[in-house]
Amino acid sequence: MNPEFLKMLSVDQATADWFYETDPVTGTTFGMKTLLSDPQTGMSVLYCVYPKGYCKPAHHHTFGQGLYVLEGVMQADGKLFHPGEFVWYPAGVVGSHGATEAGDVAFLAFANGEGKLFYD
Q1: CATH code where residue 34 lies
Q2: Which residues is 99 bridged to in the sheet?
Q3: Least confident residue range of 4-13, 69-78, 98-107
Q4: What angle do CA 99, 60, 98 make, to 5 degrees?
Q5: What's the rounded Cα separation, in Å, for the pair 48 and 18?
Q6: How does residue 3 score in pLDDT terms, banded at 50, 70 and 90?
Q7: pTM value > 0.90
Q8: Domain membership flag for residue 9
Q9: What residues have CB less than 8 Å from 77, skipping those under 6 apart?
Q10: Fewer CB within 10 Å: N-end or C-end of the chain?
């Protein structure tokens, strides 16, 4: 095992670099920051901000994905989730999630492995 991996990791979300993704279906651009990308397990944790009104269209992943709401309100599959609430999508489950028309939503996205995203 890589000795570097056995060390504690800490990341200051406030100073981490932003990167941006444009949704190929809607054309909406949103920002993310990588908090963890584990090359041994494929696990990742991203800090994400979806702009007001943006909802990622129906899609599924080849990995499980968890979403933990930090600020704002997240809509996911017809339900509303508030700060402190968590949503889990097992691998292969189709879902749609995003911000409401009321404002942006900030959340942590957890992936339990590497894989791909497919729009349905």
Answers
A1: 2.60.120.10
A2: 74
A3: 4-13
A4: 0
A5: 9
A6: low
A7: yes
A8: no
A9: 95, 96, 97
A10: N
CB 63 within 8 A of CB 118: no
Q: Give tens-digit pLDDT for 92-119.
A: 999 999 999 999 999 999 999 999 999 9
Q: Is 27 part of any domain?
A: yes
pLDDT of residue 43: 94
Range of the domain at 83: 17-119
Question: How many other CB atoms are there within 10 angstroms of residue 40's CB atom?
Answer: 8
pLDDT digits (tens, 9 = 90+) for 14-26: 999 999 999 999 9
